[in-house]
């Protein structure tokens, strides 16, 4: 009797997922005594030499000088010489269903890669993200993969696959005929799959919010502008009325709203429309950033995505070339937001570049004007507040969940040390230990 292709594919997928769990080398919850050289708690700016952290059943039970912590006799001790322990890192702008555009263009990923294949890719990306020390992730749109992010989130929560805590936005909302693939550049008789959910008018916009929330969206993402000008210029797409309707409908059912907005008018429309976060913001004026601060709108600058696109398509070579005009614009916006005092969270747009290299965004923020400790806050306690999760994770403090990472060196003084994780724990489960540690 021949088995169907679907049964064979399902069996292969299950085997791969189970293998991926085994490969992550997870260990059960219990009592853990973590002994790094220093602990950076995110409650202040300085790392504390000679401190330790005690974890009990997934919760931080104690943190402080080693001599002050009474650990159970059977606690598992993890020595982390030369390392700094920090809260687990957070990336507020990711796309698990994308991979770098110099491997496969965005159009080809959406049009030619099957959903099952993209889901398997996302599984691998989630694992790479966690092992890099990022224990929480806001994934802002599946880019044509429908509601598959909800299933990835569920599989992580149920222990089927390793990955960070997920906060998902499902399909994202765009104005009709303003995103992609196409319709510009494609035959007009083709009915192309779309990278987001297109709407026209207030009623359709509200319906999309309700549908996405019902399907499992934790956040609603909208595109306030996109490259719709005659020559590809970025211009507003959703109307102010549509943006306000999306925000009102989302807030009514407890979903915050993230806005893709890159142009001056697009950012202004999004902020005046009541969104909770602005992504990119490259063309925003100082006056708009001041309005963001006044209204408590957070900002994710996605500097690394601009750098990556400059490498792929504009011949930029890091360390050799002058910054491209796009990089100069994004740096100007970032420095303006920093000067004004806007809340800045770590959001990278990873997927444009390789998953697991999320650390590059805090490094880029430091290169463009932040101190290392400011960037570290942006990726921990500040990011947790933006997610409304500050009572759950984001600091090394008694009573919070044990999302903890250790890096060789001290990223609070040298941000590049984020590239060297040696220990990763999420919710009290260990996923990465130093080489040679059981």
TrEMBL record:
Q: Does the keyword Signal apply?
A: yes
Superkingdom, natural source: Bacteria
Q: Which Pfam families match?
A: Amidohydro_1
> Domain Amidohydrolase-related spans what residues?
84-432
Q: What keywords tag this UniProt record?
A: Signal
- UniProt keyword Metal-binding, yes or no: no
Bilayer-spanning residue ranges: none
Signal peptide segment: 1-24
Instruction: Please name the PANTHER family in this protein's record.
Output: ALPHA-D-RIBOSE 1-METHYLPHOSPHONATE 5-TRIPHOSPHATE DIPHOSPHATASE
Q: This chain belongs to which protein, by name? A: Amidohydrolase family protein
Query: Organism source for this protein?
Result: Rhodanobacter lycopersici
Organism ancestry: Bacteria, Pseudomonadati, Pseudomonadota, Gammaproteobacteria, Lysobacterales
């Amino acid at each position: 009797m021949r088995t169907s292709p679907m049964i064979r594919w399902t069996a292969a997928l299950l085997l791969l997922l189970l293998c991926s769990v085994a490969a992550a080398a997870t260990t059960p919850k219990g009592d853990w005594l973590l002994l790094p050289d220093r602990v950076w708690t995110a409650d202040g700016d300085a790392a504390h030499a000679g401190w330790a952290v005690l974890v009990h059943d997934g919760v931080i039970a104690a943190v402080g000088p080693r001599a002050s912590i009474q650990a159970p006799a059977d606690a598992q001790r993890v020595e982390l010489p030369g390392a700094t322990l920090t809260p687990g890192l957070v990336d507020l702008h990711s796309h698990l269903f994308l991979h770098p555009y110099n491997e496969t263009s965005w159009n080809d990923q959406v049009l030619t890669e099957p959903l099952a294949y993209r889901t398997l890719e996302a599984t691998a990306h989630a694992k790479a993200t966690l092992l890099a020390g990022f224990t929480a992730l806001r994934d802002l749109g599946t880019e044509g993969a429908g509601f598959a992010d909800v299933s990835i989130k569920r599989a992580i929560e149920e222990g089927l696959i390793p990955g960070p805590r997920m906060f998902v936005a499902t399909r994202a909302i765009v104005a009709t005929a303003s995103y992609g693939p196409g319709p510009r550049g494609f035959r007009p008789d083709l009915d192309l799959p779309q990278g987001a959910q297109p709407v026209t008018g207030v009623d359709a916009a509200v319906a999309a919010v309700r549908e996405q929330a019902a399907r499992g969206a934790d956040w609603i993402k909208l595109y306030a502008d996109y490259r719709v000008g005659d020559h590809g210029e970025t211009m507003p797409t959703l109307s102010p009325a549509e943006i306000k309707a999306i925000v009102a409908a989302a807030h009514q059912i407890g979903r915050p709203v993230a806005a893709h907005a890159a142009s001056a008018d697009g950012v202004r429309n999004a902020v005046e429309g009541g969104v909770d976060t602005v992504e990119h913001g490259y063309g925003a004026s100082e006056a708009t950033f001041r309005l963001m601060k006044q209204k408590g709108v957070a900002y994710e600058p996605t500097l690394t995505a601009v750098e990556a696109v400059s490498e792929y398509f504009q011949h930029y070579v890091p360390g050799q070339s002058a910054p491209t005009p796009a990089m100069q614009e994004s740096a100007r916006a970032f420095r303006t937001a920093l000067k004004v005092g806007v809340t800045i969270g770590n959001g990278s747009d990873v997927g444009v570049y390789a998953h697991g290299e999320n650390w590059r965004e805090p490094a880029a923020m430091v290169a463009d004007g932040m101190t290392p400790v400011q960037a570290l806050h942006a990726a921990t306690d500040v990011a947790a507040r933006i997610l409304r999760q500050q009572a759950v994770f984001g600091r090394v403090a008694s009573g919070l969940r044990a999302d903890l990472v250790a890096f060789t060196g001290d990223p609070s003084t040298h941000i590049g040390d984020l590239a060297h994780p040696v220990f990763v724990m999420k919710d009290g489960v260990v996923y990465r230990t130093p080489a040679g540690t059981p």
